[in-house]
């Protein structure tokens, strides 16, 4: 058997005997008694007939559809992609068994992973101590007080303070016995072009990020000086033990409450999660500063029957929610959407209102299909033929992605009733949507496993010129993102090539997932990577240094003007058709007048 790092063999056996395999696997799949054994549908493959068996007498499992089999450690290694030491540590923590460590800072006696875990644990503890005792950490303590986060909550999540100074953490870590190589591998230290090493995190409130076993594997640092021209959040870059697409923040604490509730509340940010925890709502997780991923969806599916998405009510939050819905649907997870009031998020709402108000919002969260239908109907006049057509088109795309036949049929009938259209006409729209989805390049790549070479051969991305200029400007000047996000309206770019790229860029900043243009590019599909590689090699659009914000405003004015020009033309055609009611005609005329006041020179 593989060695568990530096874990003594007797401890491995102690952990093995302390963890009943039926109990462990039963938390991931539904086991049914079958004689002296237990059976279940394979957790590794989709199947209709159970081929997965667990033998409690021998403490082993066997999956005949995938071929996997072994003991309790092997199950976690296959199911959760853990290494053997990770599986042992995970189960040891669950069983309350302490694992003695040897040679705490001897690189020769420890694996690379254990070196990283040791330095993260040490630095996290030191930063946590500084938060409580260092006079220089007063801004961090003041920030926590302003956010109504007491010391008990800070300790619960191990919050700390990374001191100012270019090498304060570096010097502490060296004295603690950690090598410069380990510090650089952990991305706690960076190296300048001149070869000088300096601290990666400086003068920030530090939020440690844990894996499922409760080990610190990364950090998120929150800026404390509101006047500083720097990113609000800086997150650890990826390392050999940290991949943000595979981590759900807080899951090491909230997994048990999620299992017990059978439901997971998906929030956008770390502060949202900590606030929920403080108020007694414990079955919560948050993506790790990036778009919600397939791996994270599978992790939640193992623990809960449903996910309640609780993202901000702004445009960025709703776009992120839609992406999360699409990912969860592929895993056939039940999804509900909590409607947060405009301008609020879980953190602000729980600070202003009794916890019962937020709990009521969660309890009344609608199935994602009803939520999307409500949003679509609110954005269009469904009393008009055009409005009904627009909503029918949008909902057909939703229906086409519903995997469950019963849910699909039920929602199709509901949409037809709501829009007062025939079932046959809506089914025709669904067939069109299915045809588009079958032939979409992204879907083909995902379903057929297209190679990177095939992806590279896709038609080049050719964004609208105004969108291209805006993307180029924001890549070079991320400080403009906040003002652009506030001003830019989704409808202005919805029909333009490159709109999704611009939305992704803005969402990365909104989700605190922005690190650098190159990192952003790496998370895009091959077609977009190819485009961005060229864009990043060319200078941003001409603009004087002092007029960058004005230049961004000019670009957005162009986008708004073009959208309103098309909107006015459509409204005027509807008025001239004579098919509108007097009330509809009046509404259209008033809207036309409002748009022409905004841009007096719009062509007729």
Radius of gyration: 27 Å
Model regions low in confidence, pLDDT < 50 over at least 5 residues = 1-5, 102-110, 441-458
- Shape from CA axes? globular
Calculate the terminal CA-CA distance, rounded to whole Å: 78 Å
Structural class: alpha+beta
What topology, given as strand order, has the largest sheet? 12-14-13-15-16-17
Helicity range:
40-55%
- Please state roughly what percent of the residues sit in beta strands, choosing from under 5%, 5-15%, 15-25%, 25-35%, 35-45% or over 45%: 5-15%
β-strand number: 17
* Average pLDDT rating: 83
Let me know the largest β-sheet. Answer: 6 strands, mixed
Number of helices: 29
Polypeptide structure, described:
The chain has 29 helices and 17 strands. The strands form four sheets. Strands 12-14-13-15-16-17 form a six-stranded mixed beta sheet, sandwiched between helices. Strands 1-2-3-4-5 form a five-stranded antiparallel beta sheet. Strands 6-9-10-11 form a four-stranded antiparallel beta sheet, covered by helices on one side. The chain has 604 residues and is α+β, with helices and mostly antiparallel strands. The longest helix has 30 residues, at 548-577. The relative contact order is 0.05. A hairpin with a 5-residue loop joins strand 9 (204-210) and strand 10.
């Amino acid at each position: 058997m593989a060695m568990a790092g530096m874990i003594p063999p007797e401890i491995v056996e102690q952990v093995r005997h302390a963890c009943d395999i039926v109990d462990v696997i039963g938390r991931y799949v539904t086991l049914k008694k079958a004689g002296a054994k237990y059976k279940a549908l394979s957790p590794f493959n989709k199947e209709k007939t159970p081929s997965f068996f667990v033998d409690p007498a021998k403490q082993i499992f066997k999956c005949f559809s995938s071929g996997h089999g072994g003991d309790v450690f092997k199950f976690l290694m296959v199911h959760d992609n853990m290494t053997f030491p990770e599986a042992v540590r995970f189960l040891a923590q669950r069983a309350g068994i302490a694992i003695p460590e040897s040679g705490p800072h001897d690189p020769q006696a420890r694996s690379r992973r254990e070196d990283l875990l040791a330095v993260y644990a040490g630095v996290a503890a030191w930063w946590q101590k500084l938060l409580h005792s260092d006079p220089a950490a007063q801004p961090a303590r003041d920030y926590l007080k302003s956010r109504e986060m007491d010391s008990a909550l800070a300790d619960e999540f191990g919050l700390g303070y990374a001191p100012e100074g270019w090498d304060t953490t570096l010097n502490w870590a060296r004295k603690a016995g950690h090598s410069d190589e380990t510090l650089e591998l952990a991305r706690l230290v960076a190296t300048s072009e001149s070869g000088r090493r300096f601290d990666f995190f400086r003068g920030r409130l530090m939020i440690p990020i844990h894996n499922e076993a409760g080990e610190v594997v990364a950090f998120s640092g929150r800026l404390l000086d509101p006047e500083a021209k720097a990113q609000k959040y800086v997150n650890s870059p990826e390392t050999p033990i940290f991949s943000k697409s595979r981590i759900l923040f807080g899951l090491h604490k909230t997994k048990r409450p999620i299992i017990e509730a059978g439901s997971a509340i998906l929030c956008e940010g770390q502060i949202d999660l900590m606030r929920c925890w403080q108020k007694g709502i414990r079955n919560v997780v948050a993506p790790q500063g990036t778009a919600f991923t397939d791996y994270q969806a599978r992790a939640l599916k193992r623990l809960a029957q449903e996910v309640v998405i609780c993202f901000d009510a702004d445009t960025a939050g709703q776009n992120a929610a839609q992406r999360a819905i699409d990912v969860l649907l592929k895993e056939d997870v039940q999804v509900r959407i909590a409607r947060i009031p405009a301008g609020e998020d879980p953190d602000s709402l729980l600070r202003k209102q009794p916890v019962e108000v937020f709990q009521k919002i969660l309890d009344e969260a609608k199935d994602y299909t009803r939520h999307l239908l409500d949003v679509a109907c609110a954005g269009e006049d469904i009393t008009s033929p055009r409005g009904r057509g627009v909503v029918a088109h949008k909902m057909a795309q939703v229906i086409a992605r519903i995997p469950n036949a019963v849910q699909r049929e039920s929602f199709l009938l509901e949409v037809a009733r709501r829009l007062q259209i025939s079932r046959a006409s809506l089914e025709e729209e669904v067939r069109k949507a299915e045809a588009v989805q079958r032939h979409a390049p992204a879907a083909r790549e995902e379903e057929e496993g297209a190679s990177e070479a095939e992806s590279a051969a896709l038609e080049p991305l050719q964004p609208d010129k105004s969108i291209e200029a805006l993307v180029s400007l924001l890549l070079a000047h991320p400080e403009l993102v906040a003002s652009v996000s506030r001003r830019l309206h989704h409808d202005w770019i919805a029909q333009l090539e490159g709109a999704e790229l611009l939305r992704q860029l803005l969402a990365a900043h909104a989700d605190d997932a922005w690190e650098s243009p190159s990192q952003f590019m790496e998370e895009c599909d091959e077609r977009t990577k190819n485009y961005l590689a060229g864009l990043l090699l060319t200078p941003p659009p001409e603009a004087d240094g002092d007029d960058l914000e004005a230049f961004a405003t000019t670009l957005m004015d162009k986008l708004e003007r073009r959208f309103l020009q098309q909107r006015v033309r459509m409204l005027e055609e509807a008025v001239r058709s004579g098919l509108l009611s007097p009330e509809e005609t009046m509404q259209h005329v008033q809207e036309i007048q409002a748009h022409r006041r905004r841009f007096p020179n719009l062509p007729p």
